[in-house]
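Minutes, structural biology subgroup

Action item carried over from last meeting: produce the structure token record for PPA1309 family protein (Streptomyces lavenduligriseus). EB confirmed the sequence was re-checked against the source entry. Recorded below for completeness.
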Amino acid sequence: MSNTPMAASPLTRAVLEIDEYVSGLGWDQPARLFALVDTARLRAQEPSLAAQLGLEDESETAGLTPIEQDEVPSGKPLDEFLATIAWPDAVTGCALTVERLMLPPSAEAQVPSDLDEARLAEWVARHPERQEVRMTVAVLRDGSRESALRLREKDTPTEVLTGPDLVPGLADALAATFAD
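Output recorded by EB:
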């Protein structure tokens, strides 16, 4: 993709490619799940699929190709859905993109202690300092992790924060999909 730095690791490039793709779809999107497959292996073992994805002429030999999976069910909690996933051996990793509301750390002291999950979500949605954020989190079978965060109010390719430990809980849940 055009905004993906070539010097980045293959996992970082895949996360930024997914972030750019989902960004092109606009905000208020459902969660999206992606399998990450080794691009060279895909070209060798599935040349017709690689051609369909436009990968047959790529010169890069060390890369990951994100393949969007079926729709993530909206009526099921994300952690419960992820607990049902098992990946075939050909899948090197996976990624998930999800939008959430986030509060700055300074707001933590303001959170009422007697709220259940639904009421807490309502409280956050009404908070004046809330931020809408899109998180793209990816993990590989070998334990590698990467994340990209994009704030709705700073929705440009140059305002995407990346790092391996930005959303550790979601990374743990994705890593569990590879547990034996």
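Discussion: The radius of gyration is 17 Å.
Next step: EB to file the record with the rest of the batch.
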